Amino acid sequence: LHSFPTRRSSRSKQWYQRRVRGDKMILLNDPDRVKKDGELAFVSALWFWMTPQSPKPSCHDALVGNWVPTEKDLKCGRKPGFGVTINIVNGGVECNHKPMKSKTFHRVETYKLFCKKLGTTPGANLNCETQQQFAAFCG
Description:
By secondary structure, the protein is mostly helical. It contains 8 helices and no strands. α7 packs antiparallel against α8. Mean pLDDT is 85; it is low at 1-6.
């Protein structure tokens, strides 16, 4: 759904190096290594999905309802659900666009298809077309 392995922040790369490989400079000097190393891609994607990066919640918490939006989040249109995971990963590019961008529409449709195949419901707040990105001032 999201291309996590190629969207690693330097902070997640440093975490992986300290926790798994011991040398934080390896990925900072060779970020394409994430694309080449399946284990590295999987571990960094899992870390990104599960770890909040202030002011953003983790994608996991936003999707399963553990994240409670602040007053500012609500003013910015951010509510728990799949849409806010799009915002967390790629908000500056995909969110706050009416009509919804084509790639965002297809991302939501793919998510709904996976939910159907897994026998679950997609929940509410599936897109981010009315959400400001997390760095935005809303008020």
